[in-house]
């Protein structure tokens, strides 16, 4: 079996310089997503500020927004290029946010030090085996304090597992850097659960288009599968929050770290 962690790291290393182009206004998206996540944090943990680990921070979309909302955020990501950019973007916005490159299955942090751990933007489904998902969730539980909060955001895969879509609609973003068109092709594996993704990003270049393609693989975990993994890792009070209810663009799973026996 190929080392999927290497392919995921390559995917985000290559995407990191252009990731902001997915959004018409990246800073506005940061603020909007932070407001939704902060609402969930307040509902479950109180007003805060809270000590938060974003263990799949990418270039900082959620982490920077939460740091600007005055939470104490530490961020990590598998991609060293993305982590470096997240740190630079945080500095540009005047917030202190330590960032490290780290695999979410081997978090290099002390136990029981965070009030909340966030794993957003459909990051957990990059782990293609039960063992990988379990290792990541157990690590997230380890670094949470007793009764700490886990927040996972993922694609809504329940219907997709039935229909097996082969592409996403083109998304046109008019950014300060110019117009960008993005879309994805999905190539489903024979098991009907995993798929290879090709992410296309097109930007104008003279009389033609500059086309960039990045490839990675996902496990289309259903809501019941993911909840079962979370429960198996020792979390309780598992709840799903839909986008209309939470204001976040993806379904959000919240759970609490059960105190050690």
Automatic annotation (TrEMBL):
<dbReference type="InterPro" id="IPR041698">
    <property type="entry name" value="Methyltransf_25"/>
</dbReference>
<feature type="domain" description="Methyltransferase">
    <location>
        <begin position="52"/>
        <end position="148"/>
    </location>
</feature>
<keyword id="KW-0808">Transferase</keyword>
<dbReference type="InterPro" id="IPR029063">
    <property type="entry name" value="SAM-dependent_MTases_sf"/>
</dbReference>
<dbReference type="Pfam" id="PF13649">
    <property type="entry name" value="Methyltransf_25"/>
</dbReference>
<protein>
    <submittedName>
        <fullName>Methyltransferase domain-containing protein</fullName>
    </submittedName>
</protein>
<keyword id="KW-0489">Methyltransferase</keyword>
<dbReference type="GO" id="GO:0008168">
    <property type="term" value="F:methyltransferase activity"/>
</dbReference>
<dbReference type="GO" id="GO:0032259">
    <property type="term" value="P:methylation"/>
</dbReference>
């Amino acid at each position: 079996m190929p080392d999927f962690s290497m392919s995921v790291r390559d995917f985000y290393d290559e995407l990191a310089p252009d990731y902001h182009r997915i959004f018409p206004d990246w800073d506005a998206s940061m603020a909007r997503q932070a407001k939704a996540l902060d609402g969930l944090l307040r509902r479950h943990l109180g007003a805060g500020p809270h000590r938060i680990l974003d263990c799949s921070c990418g270039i900082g979309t959620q982490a920077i927004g939460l740091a600007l909302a005055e939470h104490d955020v530490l961020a990590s990501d598998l991609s060293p290029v993305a982590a470096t950019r997240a740190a630079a973007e945080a500095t540009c916005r005047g917030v202190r946010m330590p960032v490290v490159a780290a695999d979410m299955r081997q978090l290099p942090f002390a136990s029981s030090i965070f009030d909340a751990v966030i794993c957003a933007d459909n990051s957990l489904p990059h782990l293609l085996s039960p063992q990988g998902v379990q290792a990541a969730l157990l690590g997230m539980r380890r670094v949470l304090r007793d009764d700490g909060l886990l927040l996972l955001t993922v694609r809504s895969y329940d219907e997709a597992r039935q229909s097996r879509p082969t592409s996403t609609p083109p998304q046109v973003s008019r950014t300060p850097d110019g117009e960008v068109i993005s879309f994805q092709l999905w190539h489903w594996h024979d098991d009907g659960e995993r798929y290879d993704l090709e992410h296309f990003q097109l930007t104008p270049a003279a009389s033609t288009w500059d086309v960039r393609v990045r490839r990675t693989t996902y496990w289309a975990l259903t809501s019941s599968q993911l909840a079962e993994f979370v429960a198996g890792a020792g979390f309780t009070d598992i709840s799903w929050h839909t986008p209309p209810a939470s204001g976040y663009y993806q379904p959000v799973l919240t759970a609490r770290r059960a105190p050690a026996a």
